[in-house]
Write a structure and sequence with these properties.
79% of the residues lie in helices and 0% in strands. By secondary structure, it is an all-alpha fold.
Length: 106
């Protein structure tokens, strides 16, 4: 394995662990909401499962980019920019949802 791939893998694993730890620490109101209304997010209350789900998403994105790179090396930058724009749009939507949706403000 080339050393840059090793560094990317280690960095992704560390970031996934950090994200999983942060996701598993919701506020008291967040914990109550998960246990009462949003049972589908209960897997995020355990750091190991939250970190594993974040790592799966990281490696899925990396696999998609590798597949695009394998097929057409010139399209990787375009695909990366599109993924970044989708991520920014998703973050904006999540922020809007949590600030304007009444059920999240209780």
């Amino acid at each position: 394995m080339p050393h840059y791939t090793r560094h990317c893998t280690i960095t992704s694993a560390i970031l996934a662990h950090l994200c999983g730890w942060l996701l598993a620490r919701p506020s008291r109101i967040g914990k109550a909401g998960i246990h009462l209304f949003y049972q589908q997010y209960r897997f995020l209350t355990k750091p190991a499962t939250a970190a594993a789900s974040v790592a799966m998403v990281y490696f899925l994105v990396a696999a998609v980019l590798f597949f695009i790179w394998f097929r057409n090396k010139k399209m990787v930058l375009t695909a990366s920019v599109l993924m970044l724009l989708f991520a920014i749009a998703g973050a904006e939507y999540a922020y809007y949802d949590f600030t304007h949706n009444f059920s999240h403000q209780l």
